[in-house]
Amino acid sequence: MKTVIVGLQWGDEGKGKVVAYFSRFYDSVVRYSGGSNAGHTIEYNDGTKIVNHLLPSFYKNKTIELLISNGVVVDLEILCEEIKNLRKKVDNFPQIKISNLAHVVLPIHKKLDEKFDKLNKIGTTKRGIGPAYADKINRIGFRLKDFENEENLRMKINEISVIYDKIYEIVFDFENLYEHYQNLRTYIISQLEIINEIKLKKVLFEGTQGVLLDLDMGTYPYVTGSNCSTTGVQSGVGFPVKLDNFTGVFKAYLTRVGNGPFPTELSGKEAEILRKKGNEYGATTGRPRRVGWLDLVLLKYATTVSGVQEMILTKGDILSGLEKVPVCIGYRINGKFVDNILDIDDIKNAVPIYEYLDGWNDINDISFKKYIGFIEEFTGIKIKAFSFGPRVDQIKML
Ligand code: IMP
Ligand code: MG
Fold first, then answer.
1. Same domain, 149 and 206
2. Are 216 and 72 part of one and the same domain?
3. Is the same domain home to 257 and 389?
4. Of 55, 110, 224, 287, which is best to mutate to test ligand 1, by the most ligand atoms within 8 angstroms of its C-beta?
5. How many independent structural domains does the chain possess?
6. Whether the predicted pLDDT of 90 surpasses 80
7. At residue 109, what are phi and psi to the nearest 5 degrees?
């Protein structure tokens, strides 16, 4: 059995918790794209809380294998920290395997990310993700396998420094990368071994960010540097793995960090109340997230391009207590009503049109069931479970 779980919005849908919950039915969890821009928060039932940026999410009381595949860009220092931290927090330490073909995020990538972002104002996480993928495509990136032989590594650093100097006029620095690599060495295996593991086992592929931040199908240029949607799985693991289940996670309202269009965005007091109630502050950068109402037009777009066959709703409990719950069911674009977009750029000029559904005080209320039914009907996709609190086991199957 192979399943991919992706976020259907702009990230922070609660994927980490959902992946952790469902990982109990799998042998391995695989990260296939992104890097330490991700921030996956898992709160276990015993109260332990983990925020991972690179390690896959998992259910704590189970022996499980965590794989970081070729499509991920790895910040060695952050990964070392995460592994160290995990050793302190779990008794059942999982098996960790990292692909030798994964690219490495260098200190220079973070500096370039800052420099670019000052000018093009995407509002990135400054984790060096875009520049690391750009170097991969420019064929000047460093893969973990480049670290195997120290002498060859030094030679490569010299070669690449010259290119950096000529193109960017920046001094290339490598800081303590080699020491971090040494700490990770025992976990690194060949990508072919990772492929063989995936072929043999029950595997859960953990998406990062969300479909609307996908490099190709998201709100370009306000997107991340990778195909974080379901389409990234095959290139991210280096072979055409056949997936059985495509699952999408979405939140009962919307959030976004960084810039870019957001038709249902709230401002002022209303935004502040929702942000506080939902604790919407970035897990990676601490930035207050932009917040707004659930946008069913965008949700439908995300289900279409990601091909998900089922959805999981999170944070419905955060909206409890509202008399009416607004959901966006269409836009007015240049005076015309539309409830379906053919181009994601259309949302730039969209004025949202809301339907006001009855609120709920408790997730067992009939109005909550009706809200779920309304979303299923609009999108044509079944909601198979919902999460009603931050802890891993606070999930109800439908
Ligand atoms: P980058 O991925 O750091 O290049 O940032 C590009 C855009 O994606 C920015 O708007 C970020 O805020 C957003 N982004 C990247 N990772 C995440 C995430 O895990 N959750 C939410 N937004 C993210
Ligand atoms: Mg997050």
1. no
2. yes
3. yes
4. 224
5. 3
6. yes
7. -65, -35
Rounded distance from Cα 318 to ligand 2 centre (Å): 17
Q: Is the CB of 38 under 6 A from ligand 1?
A: yes
Amino acid occupying residue 258: G
Q: Are residues 199 and 75 in the same domain?
A: yes
Cβ atoms within 10 Å, residue 348: 12
Query: Is the N-terminal amide bond of 221 cis, ω within 30° of 0?
Result: yes
What is the tens place of the pLDDT at every residue in 139-181? Answer: 999 999 999 999 999 999 999 999 999 998 888 888 789 999 9
Look at the block and give the residue holding tokens 């160290």.
84
Q: 373 and 265, same structural domain? A: yes
Give residue-wise pLDDT tens across range 218-234: 999 999 999 999 999 99
CA of 37 to the centre of ligand 1 (A): 6
Residues with a known catalytic role: 12, 40
Nearest atom of ligand 1 to the alpha carbon of 127 = 3
Ligand at shortest distance from the CA of 122? 1
